[in-house]
C-alpha cells in the first residue's frame, strides 16, 4: 500500500530531512503525547534505512518531517530536486508492518528507478 509518493523539493534533497506529507501520517500511529515514531524501510537492494517521522506542533498546523538516515539515503542515491520518492507499507501476517522505499528520476518524460541503476 502506498504511503507516500513525493517529488522532492530543493530542501528535501539538500537538508537532512524531508517535509513529510501530512496526509501520509495515517501509516504511523503515534500514542497521545508522542511526537515521533521510528521505523525501518528497505530499498530494492534490501539495504535497511532507519527513518523517523516527527511532528512539530508549532503554529496552526502540525508539520511532519522525515529524518533519521534520510540524509544518508539522499547522498547514496544521489537524489536531487525533481526526483520522486515512493514509500510503501505492508501489513504482514504476524501483525508487523514492513516498509519499502524507492527513488525515481524523470528522463524524457518517463520515470526510471534510481535503485535499479546502481
From TrEMBL:
Q: What is its main location?
A: nucleus
Q: Which GO terms describe its molecular function?
A: DNA binding
| CDD domains for this protein | B3_DNA
Question: Any keyword Transcription?
Answer: yes
Enumerate the InterPro entries for this protein. B3_DNA-bd, DNA-bd_pseudobarrel_sf
Sorted keywords for this record are: DNA-binding, Nucleus, Transcription, Transcription regulation
Q: Keyword Glycoprotein, does the record have it?
A: no
What are its GO cellular component terms? nucleus
Residues crossing the lipid bilayer are none
Top-level division of the source organism's lineage: Eukaryota
State the SUPFAM superfamilies in the record.
DNA-binding pseudobarrel domain (SSF101936)
Name of protein: TF-B3 domain-containing protein
Its ancestry begins with:
Eukaryota, Viridiplantae, Streptophyta, Embryophyta, Tracheophyta
Amino acid at each position: 500500500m502506498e504511503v507516500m509518493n513525493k517529488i522532492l523539493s530543493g530542501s528535501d534533497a539538500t537538508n537532512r530531512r524531508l517535509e513529510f506529507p501530512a496526509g501520509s501520517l495515517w501509516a504511523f500511529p503515534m500514542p497521545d503525547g508522542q511526537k515521533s515514531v521510528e521505523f525501518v524501510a528497505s530499498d530494492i537492494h534490501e539495504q535497511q534505512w532507519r527513518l523517523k517521522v516527527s511532528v512539530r506542533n508549532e503554529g496552526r498546523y502540525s508539520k511532519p518531517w522525515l529524518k533519521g538516515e534520510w540524509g544518508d539515503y539522499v547522498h547514496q542515491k544521489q537524489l536531487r530536486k525533481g526526483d520522486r520518492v515512493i514509500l510503501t507499507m505492508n501489513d504482514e501476517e504476524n501483525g508487523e508492518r514492513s516498509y519499502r522505499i524507492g527513488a525515481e528520476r524523470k528522463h524524457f518524460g518517463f520515470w526510471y528507478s534510481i535503485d535499479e541503476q546502481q
